[in-house]
User: What shape does this take?
Amino acid sequence: MAGIVIDRVTKRFGTVTAVRDLTLDIHDREFVTLLGPSGCGKTTLLRLIAGFMTPDAGEIRVGAIPLSTPAGVVPPERRGMGMVFQNYAVWPHKTVYQNVAFGLEVRRVSKADARARVAKVLESVNLAGLEARYPSELSGGQQQRVALARSLVVEPGILLLDEPLSNLDAKLRERMRWELKDLQRRTGITFVYVTHDQSEALALSDRIAVMHAGEVMQFAAPREVYRRPANRTVADFMGLVNLLSGRVVRAAGDASLVALGGGQPLTLAVPPGIAESQAVQVAIRPESLTLRVLTAAAAADTAEALVGKVADVTFLGNITDCHVTLDDGTRVRVQVDARQDLDVGQRVTLRFDRDTASVFTG
Assistant: This one.
């Protein structure tokens, strides 16, 4: 099975454009996540790929074969794709075996071949021995595995997953993430996964397509999306981030000076085209900041630092979450080692490696 090509696809619902002139190239055997908030168009795009909707413009291909155009759509059952829904959609009156074997019965696979294939796929999702149980006798995680097995047993080249873990509790959801990734590696199936959960996307994906208002803001590997967000929208959506307002004092590429927090200018890399005196916003992750208590002996040690006062401290077990109010009143969130003792009211400095910060026009 070749990869999926989404070429300038648009989908409208009345006056609302759910997907706007969107292009993606998903590679064969790749795990791609469509990530974004509710209403960003990610589920609409997944349903367009599945063939449940007709695009208003553009084309969807698998390899060189057109599957969806405004002129017509290849039906879902003829696309060689499987789909796993958010609500599992398992039949309560059928056993695990009957649920999983249903697609093979529709395809008129022989009973002997069906038994062998069902046994193999149940083994792959850790459900061997539960063939005779009904969904009401299974946990949420086991029901989700039944839905996965039902899609996998027909041997799709592409598996589409629409927020499949959202109904599970936190611990089970985390365990299922790794099971999904391991399953994808073992089967070599192309996975296209929809979620609004950033941690799921980071943990599972080969690449993430961050969506907003029907468009792809960034399509890249998880580390790239997290560490080098393409714009403020991506930076703000991908986990915790401080967005600090500043102004360029000197525009000199990687050695530019940017005034932040009411203190002395800091050396930062700014994008091409930014001029002196231009307003900017600097995105810094809480874990990228190093916090030090400003003692009397080190009162002058504020070079390349933000200076402020501890406003709030929360111990979270593995880390301490701290809020610092800078001298200009800006509130900054910092995550530090849990062994670092801090008190509200302490004067502190905050430093960060300039490679961990992203600068956007203000």
